[in-house]
Amino acid sequence: MEINVDIPEPFQELVQPTKKWRHYCYYGGRSSGKSTTVATVLAVQATAKPIRILCAREYQASIADSVHKLLADAIEKYKLPGWEITRESIRNKNGSEAIFRGVRNNPQSIKSLEGIDVCWGEEAAAFSAESIDILVPTIRKEGSYFIWTFNRTAISDPIWEKIASNPDERTFVKKVNSTDIERLLSKEIIFEREKMRTENPDLFQHIWLGEPLSANTGSVYGKQLQQARVDGRIGKGRHQIFGTLFRMVADILGRRKG
């Protein structure tokens, strides 16, 4: 069966690797096609031959937090044969399967996994150093490899410091931004991107160009945090503090729609 799939040029290394990579790191800004493309590539490869895929995140409270829908959508879009999709699992009659796990939720269940061919670490900037150290030795099958997709958060993101910033001879690192897949973007996304480029250049660098939070961007959050203290919106409880921070981030990111 011939399957015609349009894979953007920045991701061709996934399809036709120039060498045997242990780590693929794709990072960059929003709407750059990282997650959708990886889901498509893995779905097609798992249709062609039996492979076992671990789809990992730092936290996964439910299957809705995983890349389950991305894989299911790719299978449906390209009418890939042999797949059985349930709410909790995705399996093919040829023996391929996708497993969904949160590392921080249950590290012991990760350590006990066997025979994984590919580990896809989605939103990898959120992975702690401890979680990376659990995953890497767990994926030990001959020829196995990792795909890390992420938008950088801070200069000190563990995935950046441990794997991407100083790649060894078996690590492929590629920055991909929305401008690299411009032909695939909707007019609405391009409009929002260009609007932020003009109205908030510092936040634009972080959201659309995949740069870590800068001192200038951080100062925006700092002012919001200080005002929250003045208003008495930050209490001593950890959950109250995090709730306030999440609301502040939502408020800031929501401004581009105002």
Quick synopsis:
The chain is an alpha/beta fold.
Summarize this structure as a short list of keywords or feature phrases.
about 260 residues; alpha/beta; eight-stranded mixed sheet; 8 strands; disordered C terminus
Can you put this structure into words, describing what you see?
- This protein is of the alpha/beta class.
- The protein is built from ten helices and eight strands.
- β3 (83-85) and β4 form a beta hairpin.
- α2 packs across α3, α7 crosses α8 and α9 packs across α10.
- The longest helix has 17 residues, at 215-231.
Task: Compile the SSE list and pairings.
Elements: H1 12-15, E1 23-27, H2 34-48, E2 52-57, H3 68-77, E3 83-85, E4 90-92, E5 97-102, H4 107-111, E6 118-122, H5 129-138, E7 145-150, H6 158-164, E8 171-175, H7 187-199, H8 201-207, H9 215-231, H10 238-254
Parallel strand pairs: 1-7, 1-8, 2-5, 2-6, 6-7
Antiparallel strand pairs: 3-4, 4-5
Helix pairs in contact: 2-3, 7-8, 9-10
Order of helices and strands: HEHEHEEEHEHEHEHHHH
**What structural category do the secondary elements indicate?**
alpha/beta
Largest sheet data: 8 strands, mixed
- Please work out how many helical segments DSSP would assign: 10
Strand order of the largest sheet: 3-4-5-2-6-7-1-8
Strand content: 15-25%
Mean pLDDT: 86
Radius of gyration: 19 Å
Report the span from N to C terminus: 48 Å
Regions with pLDDT < 50 over 5+ consecutive residues?
Answer: 225-229, 232-250, 252-258
Q: Helix content range of the residues, please? A: 40-55%
- The dominant shape is globular
- Give the tally of β-strands: 8
